[in-house]
TrEMBL record:
UniProt-listed InterPro entries: MglB-like_PBP1, Peripla_BP_I, SBP_2_dom
Matches recorded under SUPFAM superfamilies: Periplasmic binding protein-like I
Annotated localization: Cell envelope
GO cellular component: cell envelope
Quaternary data: The ABC transporter complex is composed of one ATP-binding protein (MglA), two transmembrane proteins (MglC) and a solute-binding protein (MglB).
Protein name: D-galactose/methyl-galactoside binding periplasmic protein MglB
Length: 325
């Protein structure tokens, strides 16, 4: 399904022709992607047409959407890949029709991105987010007033809620988070690794299964806020009014509105802010520069292809700065 949207602001055109930007997202039900696209559309100029497609986690559907965006004359195409390991069809079409493509949020390989001077990536550094999540947890665990080690055995029993199997960002976030905790001197005992596909409902189901198995959980590390919120849902569903006293320390990544609200209320101990506003603005500004033939010099492009926005660690101390920005 495609939705045609236009934003507010100054009128932009090429020889009095409305600029048309096509966007295909891997799954519109991903909260972070939805909020990023909301920002992208609200930032857009009045006379720019943005057509957004939901691939519904289907590579075949996304390939069809790529062809439709080309056929309908999109000046620039933005792709949030369903599968970063299978971009060949999209790349081949872009090369055939000489269309500039901005890949975003799900990073394809360096070799694929370098196949055209008109290919770009806008996103963040997954390694940085994993490190920051590990630092957030380590700082609290090693703090003098920490209550995370509830059984006082000097080891933290933890569960990792990981995104899609084989997904590069999920693997990197998990690996560097745990590595950072260990390097900081935290003793860890993994009680479970649950693949929940970045999905809140799946995460709830996985954690409920672990709770029912009576394993001890002192810490839950989630690759994104939706899964962290799903973990909270599991405890609320299992324990009702007593849930808050049962919920372990939970950390997410993304800084979605729901995630920030959970930090503010204390259900989550922290998250890592993935700058959706910065990414949306950078993607739009790049798309407009490509569509109008304007200079790219001031857009912060690295290595000819990359725009990366930094992460920020979020705790109760600074959550309001991001929740109400």
């Amino acid at each position: 399904m495609a939705a045609t949207l236009s934003g507010c602001g100054n009128i932009k055109s090429i020889d009095n022709k409305t600029i048309r930007i096509g966007v295909s997202v891997y799954d519109i039900h991903d909260t972070f992607i939805t909020q990023l696209m909301d920002e992208f559309n609200s930032y857009a100029d009045t006379n720019v047409t943005i057509v957004t497609y939901n691939a519904g986690q289907s590579t075949k559907e996304q390939n069809n959407q790529m062809q439709e965006m080309i056929d309908t004359g999109c000046d620039v195409i933005c792709i949030n890949l369903v599968d970063r390991t299978e971009p060949e069809h999209i790349i081949d079409m872009a090369l055939k029709y000489d269309v500039p493509v901005i890949f975003f949020n799900r990073e394809l390989t360096k070799e694929d991105l370098q196949r055209s001077a008109k290919f770009y990536y806008v996103g963040s550094d997954a390694v940085e987010s994993g490190i920051m999540q590990g630092e957030l947890a380590a700082d609290e665990i090693l703090g003098q007033e920490s209550t995370i080690d509830t059984n006082n055995d000097g080891t933290i029993q933890y569960v990792m809620l990981q995104g899609e199997a084989g997904h590069q960002d999920a693997i990197v976030r998990s690996e560097y988070c745990v590595e950072t905790l260990i390097n900081k001197g935290v003793q860890l005992d993994r009680q479970g690794l649950a693949i929940a596909n970045f999905n809140r409902t799946q995460a709830q189901s996985k954690i409920e299964q672990l709770i029912s198995s009576n394993i001890e959980i002192e810490l839950i590390l989630a690759n994104n806020d939706d899964m962290a919120l799903g973990a909270i849902d599991a405890y609320l569903n299992m324990y009702g009014e007593d849930a808050k006293s049962k919920i372990p320390a939970i950390y997410g990544i993304d800084g979605t509105i729901g995630g920030l609200e959970a930090v503010k209320t204390g259900y989550m101990h922290g998250t890592v802010y993935n700058d959706k506003e910065g990414q949306a603005h950078a993607m739009y500004d790049l798309a407009m520069a490509l569509a109008t033939g304007s200079s790219l010099d001031d857009l912060g492009i690295e290595d000819g292809h990359y725009i990366r926005l930094p992460h920020t660690k979020i705790t109760l101390d600074n959550v309001n700065d991001f929740l109400y920005r």
